[in-house]
Prior knowledge:
Helix 1 packs across helix 8, helix 3 packs parallel to helix 5 and helix 5 packs parallel to helix 6. Strands 3-2-1-4-5-6-11 form a seven-stranded parallel beta sheet, sandwiched between helices. It is an alpha/beta fold.
Amino acid sequence: MRILLTGSAGFIGFHTAKALLERGDEVIGFDNFNDYYDPKLKEARNKILRQYKNFRLVRGDLKDKKSLKKAFDLMGAGPDTRVCHLAAQAGVRHSIEHPEMFLEDNIAGFGNIIDLAKERKVGGFIYASSSSVYGDSKISPLSEDLNTDAQASLYGMTKKANELQASVYHHLFGLHCTGLRFFTVYGPWGRPDMALYLFTDWIVKDKPMKIFGGGKMRRDFTYIDDIVAGVVAALDKNYPCEVFNLGGDKTEELMDYVKIIEQCLGKEGRKEFLPMQPGDVVQTSANVDKARKMLGYDPKTQIREGIPQFIAWYKEYHNIA
Length: 321
C-alpha cells in the first residue's frame, strides 16, 4: 500500500511507520517536529526512518493545507492508498493549560486531513482516538458500545469530536474510517511527558517522583508493539466505519508499575504523593474483545516484559552505563 502517515516522528507514528516500511509498504511521513517535547528525539526517530528507500517525509503542519496537499500528491489516489492519521497535540493536563492548541491541531487539523482524504478518494482513513473519550467512567472494563458523552478533559473531547466527524464523513461520502482508542501506550522511544519516561528520569536524576492520585490509580498499560499490530491490522482490514479499543488487556496498579521501574534501575525513587490532577481519571481498563474478533488483535506484552525494554532503550539513548 501507499500510506500517508501523520505524526511519523512521534512515538506511535515512528514505530508504525517502521513496521510498514519493513513489510514493503510505501510510507509518506508528515510531521511538524514541534517543541511540545524535545525535537531532538523526533529527529532521532526520523533519522532511522530515512534509512528506508520506501520512506519520504513532508515537514508540515496539519493546519496548513498547502503542505498537506503536497503529502497527498506524493501518495496519489486509488484503493491501495490509506491515510494513517496519528498526529495530534497530546497531553491531558496540557490541554487544560493550552486549550487553543488542542482545538486548532486536534479538531481543525483533523478536519483538514479528513476532508482531503474525501476529496482525493483515498482508499481508507485510520485515525488515533483515545481511552480519554470514556471520561472518568466507573464501568470496567470499558467497551466500545458504552456512552462517551462525558469526557473529563479537553483532550478527550477533541478525540470524541474526531470520532463524530469520521462517522459523518462515512455517512455522507462513503469514506472508510476506523478509529483506534489507545490505552496508555509505553515502550522504547516513548514520549518524555509520559509516566514511564518521567518516573525513570526522576529516579535516575534522584529527583522526587510526582505520583498523582495518591498512587491509587490503575491503568491498562499497552506495549508499543501490540499497538502497532493493531494499527497495521486496521489499515489492512479497512472496515467501512468502526471504532476499536487497543489496550493491554490487563489493568495494573500504578505502584506496581513504579516498583518494576525501580527494580530495573536497581534504585528506589523518592516519592511525592499528590492529589488527582484535573482531567485525570482513576482507572482505565480496555475490553478488547471487538478488536480481537475483527482485527485479530492479541496483546502479548505485559509490563514485566515491556518496562525492561524501555529501560534498556533509555540507558542507550542517554548514554547511561
